[in-house]
Amino acid sequence: MGMNEPRLSPERNLALELVRTTEAAAMAGARLMGRGDKIGADQAAVDAMRHVLDGVEMNGTVIIGEGEKDEAPMLYNGEVVGNGEPPHCDIAVDPVDGTTLTAEGRAGAIAVIAASEAGSMYNPGSAVYMEKIAVGPTGAGIVDIRLPVQRNITALAKAKRVEVSDITAIVLDRPRHADLIAEIRDAGARIRLISDGDVAGAIACAMPNSGVDILFGVGGTPEGVITAAALKCMGGDLQGRLWPRDDDERAAMVAEGKDPDQILGLDDLIATENCFFAATGITTGDLMKGVSYTPGGITTHSIVMRGTSGTVRIIEAQHQSEKLRKIKPIGYT
Asked: Tell me: the pLDDT tens digits for 263-274?
């Protein structure tokens, strides 16, 4: 951002405007819940989110989107979104975090967007996967991704003043995590396996009474950056280490100036406190309720966060289907 370009006013909570985009994406994607069409659900959510983004007062550049321009006609990496007015922002979107969850009607799919000051958001580039550890505020500064699993769990239990057997770790259910799961079991902690959706899983670790305490394992690097924005707002912590799948991928990371062995903290992933996060439930999960329908209306549940104040808002919204249709029929009514 140039010296004379307007910065995002700390008095303005951009996330309160961005939540309209996740509500639209969730309502559009939820129409295809359980229909077995994850591509269709994702495309409906993308279309709805992109349409609503046009009206948000910002000049945003998509750092993390649906892929390169030739793969994604909308919300592609590098696309400019918003109405073109200041502030200049980096944007990360995941219109459906959990496309399989949505298509199969399973719990925990959400629509997500994050924003931060221009130039502050980590660009994953060729780094598809990242090893992660995530905790809430009590675990911030306590855990270390370089330490053995047992030491991290023991340290977290001590910080929370609970027994190790009270700690619940959340892990993506993947063959690559067999050894990790064994280590968690050997440590004496409980495990919740999830099939998809590690953004929601990591955020749940920072929510009171969510039933989970710490996230371990390898997941998407883009999702890691989005999660970092949320945990920065919440006072939690996330550490990541890039996880190249082969020598070619490692070489591509190095060519981009990335160190695959570097420990990436919150400030590496989102290099500002001036960041925002919004998410809306598509299917009901641990983090929030999904989209539900009543005669003439749609109910959504969202989480809205702001980094500079650390404010986390829970928003339940009632949408009138008839009025939404008059705005523009984009699939979520």
From this structure: 999 999 999 999
